[in-house]
């Protein structure tokens, strides 16, 4: 009898006050998109971690990146490199600056991983630093070339 009373009390409490959402933001609509849904981005990077791109060592690549619900997926646009450098990541709203995290797999023919962490410095421009699994690091800038 006592067990039945406890069960009924718990159940009635659930009916009167429903449980709070377990996932943060679950009760809200889709996140505000901080990047274009699809676009071509120019990635410039150097091999020195000093907060600026060195014009003597900067290399550049173009990526087609899709951003859906602030999650990113991208591929290199160069025909010979479409299977090298696959990207995944996310952009997180920040106050006042959104931040971005990207993992790029297959950065060399033998594999490899590079991690980018940066911030949206203005519409269509992301700047930050990268590190790779072969002890390399440097600065990067991603600039939107064309929104699709």
Which SSEs are present, and which pair or pack?
Layout: H1 2-16, E1 38-45, E2 59-68, E3 71-76, E4 86-92, E5 99-108, E6 111-122, E7 125-132, E8 137-147
Antiparallel strand pairs: 1-2, 1-8, 2-3, 3-4, 4-5, 5-6, 6-7, 7-8
Describe the structure.
It is globular, with a radius of gyration of 22 Å. The N and C termini lie far apart (66 Å). By secondary structure, it is mainly beta. Strands 1-2-3-4-5-6-7-8 form an eight-stranded antiparallel beta barrel. It contains one helix and eight strands.
Labels describing this entry:
Lipocalin; 8-stranded antiparallel beta barrel; mainly beta; 8 strands; disordered N terminus; globular; 148 residues
- Please tally the β strands and state the result: 8
Profile the largest sheet.
8 strands, antiparallel, barrel
Spatial order of strands in the largest sheet: 1-2-3-4-5-6-7-8
Tally of alpha and pi helices? 1
Looking at the overall shape, the CATH architecture is: Beta Barrel
Mean residue pLDDT: 80
Strand content: over 45%
- Quote the distance from N terminus to C terminus: 66 Å
Can you say what the CATH homologous superfamily is? Quinohemoprotein amine dehydrogenase alpha subunit, domain 2
Report helical residue fraction.
10-25%
Rounded Rg = 22 Å
Structural domain tally: 1
Level-1 CATH class name: Mainly Beta
**Annotated CATH topology:** Lipocalin
Shape: globular
